Amino acid sequence: MTDPTRRTILTLGSAGAVGGALALVGCAADAPSPTGAASSPPPTLAEETPAEPSAAPDAPALGDDIAAVADVPVGGSIDATINGEPALIAQPTAGQVVAFSAICTHQQCVVAAAGDEFHCPCHGSMYDAATGDVIQGPALDPLTPIGVAVSGDRIVATS
């Protein structure tokens, strides 16, 4: 009797769990190496993937690089892109960096950085750059905050 092929095992195995178990057993067997010794198991994903630098245990996970801290004036703001979406970055005090979605909460126009404020060009809404809160409507809701952190001299997304 000849050994069944993998195709035969898989075909038979599709009818029940016994065949699935046989298919797994058939795939797991090590073929002898040319020297007669069993081959070593293939490397795991952890062995294949190089270690990435990680944040300290209590620090947020670091994501995409956004800008240099020096690019954002203290007390001011800049336009940016975070995860492919328009965003606003502000530095209310030296070393304190905050970010918000640049999508106006009134009618979804793209809001622009304007020093210590953000201005919507469509209907005149104005937001506080330090908090994202509405200073002047018609918008009623604040801008959506985006998680950022300072890593060295760079501003990075935290997710």
Distance between the termini: 58 Å
What would you call the shape? globular
For this structure, what is the CATH class of the largest domain? Mainly Beta
Tally of contiguous helical segments? 3
Largest sheet: 4 strands, antiparallel
How much helix, percentage-wise, in residues? 10-25%
The CATH architecture of the largest domain can be given as 3-layer Sandwich
Listing every helix as H and every strand as E from the N terminus to the C terminus, the arrangement reads HHHEEEEEEEEEEE
Summarize model confidence as the mean pLDDT.
74
Gyration radius, in Å: 28 Å
Q: What do we call the CATH topology of the largest domain?
A: Rieske Iron-sulfur Protein
Characterise this structure.
The chain has helices at residues 6-13, 17-28, 45-48; strands at residues 65-68, 77-82, 85-93, 96-101, 112-114, 117-119, 126-128, 134-136, 145-146, 148-151, 154-157. The chain has 159 residues and is of the alpha+beta class. The protein has two domains: 6-42, no CATH class; 65-157, Rieske Iron-sulfur Protein (3-layer Sandwich), CATH 2.102.10. The strands form three sheets. It has a four-stranded antiparallel beta sheet with strand order 2-3-4-9, with no helix packed on it. Strands 5-6-7-8 form a four-stranded antiparallel beta sheet, with no helix packed on it. It has a three-stranded antiparallel beta sheet with strand order 1-11-10, with no helix packed on it.
